[in-house]
Batch of 2 targets.
Target 1
Amino acid sequence: MTNQIRALYERAIAHFGEGTQLLKAMEESGELVQAVAKYTALPVPAMSDAEAEHAKQTINHLAEEIADVRIMLDQLEMIADCHDKVGRWKWKKIRRLRERIEEDEAHG
Ligand SMILES: [Mg+2]
């Protein structure tokens, strides 16, 4: 995160308040869940021009919601002062993911 973006998030938290930004984080998380659900319901492959257009809009909406959640996750880490913990958990989870894949591959 750049210093400019961090400063903007600090302003947002000061301006709107922590409580409002926490509610916003929950709201955006819910919107992402809905966007993923719509994405999973897309017909693959698209059968018509209308379906192809619908898929394009659905993917664009998913991208928007991913961006919204990333922005709110950054602010959530700042509010809870847990950036380093998140980093450690992330690497732990990534290692666990790799181990699960390797175990599955080893056992067919
Ligand atoms: Mg949103």
Note: The chain has one domain: 3-82.
Target 2
Amino acid sequence: MAQVFEWEILFRTESAGHCATFPPLESRVLVRTVIRPAACAMIPIPTTKDTFAMAFYDVFNGDADGICALHQLRLAEPRDSTLITGVKRDIALLGRVQAGDGDQITVLDVSLDKNREALQQLLDAGADVLYVDHHYAGEIPDHPRLEALINTAPDVCTSLLVNGRLKGQYLPWAVAAAFGDNLYDSARHAAVPLNLAENRLKALETLGTCINYNGYGATEADLFFHPAQLYRRLHPFADPFQFMAEEPAFATLRDGYAEDMARAGSVQPESADDQTALFILPDAAWARRVSGVYSNELARNHPERAHALLTAKPDGGYVVSVRAPVSTREGADDLCRAFPSGGGRKAAAGINHLPVEDLERFEKAFRAAFAR
Ligand SMILES: [Mn+2]
């Protein structure tokens, strides 16, 4: 009689300090060894076909919306997953996932259109994908292993979509995220059932703004916290007010934000009228961090005006943030997609690299796009 032994081996790495480039945090391998009575077969041979390993990947935008979407999902359904994220503009994230049969991938707040090829490959490899997003998606693949919750309406964000899926279980985080995505009306509307005093609502606004602010930068070196690290700091707190009171990361972001915004406020516009305003910020870490949130604030303070914020890059050219007028929330995506590295949403979009020689063409296209 042959004897069969089975071991389940658990590989595990500690989660602290790990980020996107690390291997899965946990995987299980089932090894079966058969020992037969014949002398020639006394050496145990693990049979690879019995090997079983399933991995979880959480892929998310490094801004407030991406982080708060994942936070809500993982409060509801805890998972020890590999985190794949980066600076806010780093949206081609799915290509970094190496997954196969039975692996579970959750993708939050990055355009499906920009991750289409990687998504198709992962689905073909046998992975299950939950995709929640509000950016331009193009055609959504029809695949039995893909669950897509995608809504590109200008007044929703990924965290609000996740909140709907979780039936409002962690609503304060979705409210903070909506503020972070500059969806102030949506945030206040969503917050109604919470019955918050105005100062508490304002605190959620500050929280969303600060987490969002942390995501902006050319590279992770510009950021106060790697978005995966910020997510891990925040994840122990189901209550956002407790997070703000107890976690020092919040004070770091709040102070950094105030300082960077004061610097940005002293920069005069290159051009400004009733319809458009264009600013150029210098090549500096503070400018790269603050450009996105500063353009959100400009957009709110001048709701009838479109805004373009260009931040000079060290090797020439500009990173561009465009905000459509808050009164219409339209046209930013079309404008930016007319440039090779452009993309985004109707209300807020950007260009990752605008060569210096394209500056004039951009200025013209920007004014034409929002002329009334
Ligand atoms: Mn978003």
Note: DSSP finds twelve helices and 13 strands in the chain.
